[in-house]
Amino acid sequence: RHGLTCLLNEKPFAGVNGSGKHNNWSLTSDDGINMLNPGDTPHENIQFLLVLACILKAVDKHADLLRESAACVGNDHRLGAHEAPPAIISVFLGDQLQDVIDQLCSTGEATHSIQGATLKTGVTTLPDFEIDATDRNRTSPFAFTNNKFEFRMVGSSDSIASPNIVLNTIVAESFKEVANELESASDFDEAVHDIIKRLFTAHRRIIFNGNGYSEEWVKEAKRRGLSNLPSMIDAIPALVSEDSIKLFEEFEVFTRTELESRVEIEYEAYSKAINIEAKTMIDIAGKSIIPAVIRYTTRLADSIIKLKSAISGIETYAQNAILIEVNEHLKESKVALENLKNYMDNATEITDVTAHAKYMHEVVVPAMEALRKPIDTLEMIVDKDLWPMPSYGDLLFEV
Questions:
Q1: Domain 267-398, CATH 1.20.120.1560 — does that match?
Q2: CB atoms < 10 A from the CB of 120, how many?
Q3: pLDDT greater than 80 at residue 113
Q4: Predicted structure pTM score
């Protein structure tokens, strides 16, 4: 109705919030009990603590697989900033549950739970607010929020099927392993207590309540031994690791052959998406932007010539400086465009699906970024009436 189109791309505009899904995931028993409801005193809720410990184990053990479940081309640009979680898998629990786990790991028992604080508004006409003890952290990819988890990595164009298949299967594995141990225990209560403490101690490295965007977290995650898979190409191999194959075959979700097929499909999908984007970029740069910049330089050069012919000795420093700057960026754009064309021609010679996808990621994508850089600069200089498409300013402030 308004001449607008809904974009499902995860990151259509650099430096601006992208688009993704919050996959709200919870567990309910067959008799309607929410297994992720901590209650008012989570330190006393043994069932909840055991379920939480199993989930932490599952996410820590299969973090690469969970990351892969949200891998797509658009997410390569989205993850890591502007209210999107980073590519490093971690679990946010909030101060209350963090404190309970710290107590269990350090002393072997939890004796109390931190309660939510009050937020003072300082305005007489507004009431004070109770702060949820779990709080919120928009930089966390897998966050506990009151009585459920939110997996926030999923891209806007992606189905939630893969993340939920992975979540359900990895947690089922943890449940099975713990159930086997409990069923053979001579003292059930003591075994439950020992399992909870052991799992929290072994997998607490996956818990992070801080700023997921900071460089400090990248370094800390590396120190903890957590994976950092920034791209779809980095993440895809997790689908056919021996651990993943064993997991999916044990629970009869996928066979090895089916997983290998999915990997090939994902590599091919990546290549096709980058191929479309690169060809579109070549077309826009070569047929629209570079000709527009040439028209601008011609107009600017003509104005300098006319000024000098009209007024003897007139100073045209500003015009000359702009013309030189624009011409440099124009040259840089043309060189980058020719490089991208050559790389795309070379890509047609690669027949192996995996090798082709890796080439697109390692060679073509950087070439696209190299072309974009001077053109972004030119967008800020060239006359608005000559620029062949809406600028960021037009899109953000004038639509």
A1: yes
A2: 9
A3: no
A4: 0.89
